[in-house]
């Protein structure tokens, strides 16, 4: 178990350029040395300053974070600066740092050799080979979540909307907005029916059930089923059909803000995590009259994996291993395993080491990566039999880690890890198997 970080202080609002000599990587052997406190050597953030996640003691999310809507045009010269190591480690280590002047990095998505980054500036930037390839910008709304499905990119925003972008077939670097969820046509059709209105949490006024009336905090794709799931601070999860962007269902999922949603890839399950401290498993059922016709869906709760005091901040599912990972404001990552014969999932254990809230998770192959308000990224390996071992602590960020992405490569080093932080940078790391 790692030492606990006792550092306190006020949130950092600006960052210095990060150079390679500020990067530290602790190996598995070093992690086992007594008195090694990796977390204490980095951030001065406190748990309460990890903005972007709601806890049950907080009020409106619009009052929480120092968002700044002003931003330069993405078509202007890029504000990013790339710093590379002269010698890239062959087994594990830091590769490059993308330092930006646009504000906090809130979302990442890796797709093949492309990296998408989202921030409070409303810009979505596309990177290839550690160089900026292109960028596109929404009209409003901080970019809270990004998922990629083929040539389409879905982005979730603070203004409660989901925007859809498509890459040009002639020039993949060019992206055009092709839709907004809900669509204008569906919104207008639904607005004339009084039964389609529900009471909104914010401002206590009614709103259409098919539209999020608070920030979209998370997105997850089930490409096999052709569905997109969106979670929001309005406590709901909505189900969208990708083919025509139609909203099929709205789940009153939790008693507080939904911070995480993850499709399982097995048994038709979807997992949701909330500031109310619970993780729920939902099973998708297709309405009888629409079987084979791609019609309405119905989701039912089949299991509550955990109830705790701290907020659930992130979820990730490894379908091949039948494993579900959950991070929380308590600084721990818990995981559940799918038993033979299906449900229910059983608690497999907990991963300790972070000194502050764990804010994000990512996984690929046998590797699980966690990012924390303590400014560190921890790497864990899932062994045969389900046990987990600590692999490394990646140190270099000067503020909480808000988002992670992992890509698995065909050759060694086997994995590429991307970490986005409130220090306004994205760092790239390489890991061996």
UniProtKB/TrEMBL annotation:
InterPro entries: JINGUBANG-like, WD40/YVTN_repeat-like_dom_sf, WD40_PAC1, WD40_repeat_dom_sf, WD40_rpt. Keywords: Repeat, WD repeat. Pfam families: WD40. Gene3D superfamilies: YVTN repeat-like/Quinoprotein amine dehydrogenase. The keyword Repeat applies. WD repeats lie at residues 209-250, 251-282, 351-380, 394-433. Signal peptide: none annotated. This is Vegetative incompatibility protein HET-E-1-like. It comes from Canna indica.
């Amino acid at each position: 178990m790692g030492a606990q970080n006792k550092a306190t202080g006020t949130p950092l609002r600006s960052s210095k350029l990060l150079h390679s000599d500020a990067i530290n990587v602790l190996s598995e052997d070093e992690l086992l040395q007594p008195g090694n406190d990796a977390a204490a050597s980095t951030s001065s953030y406190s748990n309460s300053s990890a903005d972007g996640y709601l806890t049950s003691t907080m009020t409106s999310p619009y009052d929480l974070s120092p968002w700044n809507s002003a931003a330069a045009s993405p078509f202007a010269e890029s504000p990013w600066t790339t710093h590379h190591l002269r010698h890239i480690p062959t087994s594990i280590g830091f590769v490059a740092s993308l330092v930006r002047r646009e504000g906090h990095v809130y979302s990442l998505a890796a797709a093949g050799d492309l990296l998408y980054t989202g921030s409070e500036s409303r810009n979505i930037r596309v990177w290839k080979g550690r160089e900026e390839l292109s960028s596109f910008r929404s009209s409003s709304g901080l970019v809270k979540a990004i998922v990629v499905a083929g040539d389409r990119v879905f982005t979730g925003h603070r203004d409660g909307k989901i925007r859809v972008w498509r890459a040009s077939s002639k020039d993949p670097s060019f992206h055009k907005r092709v839709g907004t969820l809900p669509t204008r046509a569906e919104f207008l059709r639904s607005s004339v029916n009084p039964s389609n209105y529900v009471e909104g949490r914010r401002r206590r006024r009614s709103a259409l059930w098919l539209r999020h009336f608070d920030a979209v905090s998370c997105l997850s794709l089930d490409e096999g089923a052709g569905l997109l799931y969106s979670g929001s601070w309005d406590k709901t999860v909505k189900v969208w059909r990708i083919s025509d962007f139609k909203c099929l269902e709205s789940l009153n999922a939790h008693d507080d803000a939904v911070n995480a949603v993850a499709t399982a890839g097995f048994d038709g399950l979807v997992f949701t995590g909330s500031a109310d401290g619970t993780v729920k498993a939902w099973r998708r059922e297709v309405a009888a009259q629409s079987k084979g016709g791609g019609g309405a869906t119905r989701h039912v709760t089949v299991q509550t994996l955990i109830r705790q005091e701290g907020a659930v901040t992130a979820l990730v599912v490894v379908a091949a291993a039948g494993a579900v990972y959950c991070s929380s404001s308590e600084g721990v990552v818990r995981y559940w395993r799918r038993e033979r014969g299906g449900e229910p999932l059983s608690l497999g254990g907990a991963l300790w080491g972070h000194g502050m809230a764990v804010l994000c998770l990512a996984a690929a192959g046998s590797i699980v990566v966690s990012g924390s308000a303590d400014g560190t990224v921890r790497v864990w390996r899932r062994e045969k039999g389900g046990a987990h071992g600590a692999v490394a602590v990646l140190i270099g960020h000067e503020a909480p880690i808000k988002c992670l992405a992992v890509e698995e490569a065909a050759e060694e080093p086997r994995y590429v890890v991307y970490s986005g932080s409130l220090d306004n940078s994205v760092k790239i790391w390489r890991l061996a198997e």
